[in-house]
Design a protein that fits this description.
Shape: elongated
Order of helices and strands: EHHE
Number of domains: 1
Number of strands: 2
Radius of gyration: 21 Å
Strand content: 5-15%
Helix content: over 70%
Structural class: mainly alpha
Largest sheet: 2 strands, antiparallel
Number of helices: 2
Length: about 100
């Protein structure tokens, strides 16, 4: 079993990864909320004032834009965390990981 030390993390790669998963999670949550709002509307609970195709279209556009903003925010947060990891790893050492070959 060999021990490896992670001395630095690429902030750009962390940004790209967090951007992608943040966008996907935002889409999933947004679509779930859109369906929940539609279901509540069917049982008589009114949540919005726009109805019909325009309401669905604006809801979908809103979900995509909100998901994009969530992805960008997650990417920026991940890049900042990677930046601080690199500073602390240079000062006190990185994370050590034991790995088996094979």
């Amino acid at each position: 079993m060999k021990t490896y030390e992670i001395k630095s993390i690429g902030a750009g790669s962390v940004f790209k990864f967090n951007l992608c998963w943040g966008f996907v999670i935002g889409l999933i949550v947004g679509l779930a909320l859109l369906l929940m709002g539609h279901t509540l509307n069917d049982v008589g609970i009114e949540l919005g004032t726009i109805r019909g195709a325009l309401g669905v279209g604006t809801g979908i556009v809103g979900i995509v834009l909100a998901s994009a903003l969530q992805g960008i925010g997650a990417g920026i947060a991940g890049a900042i965390m990677a930046f601080f990891y690199n500073i602390f790893a240079a000062a006190v050492g990185g994370i050590k990981v034991k790995m088996e070959e094979g």
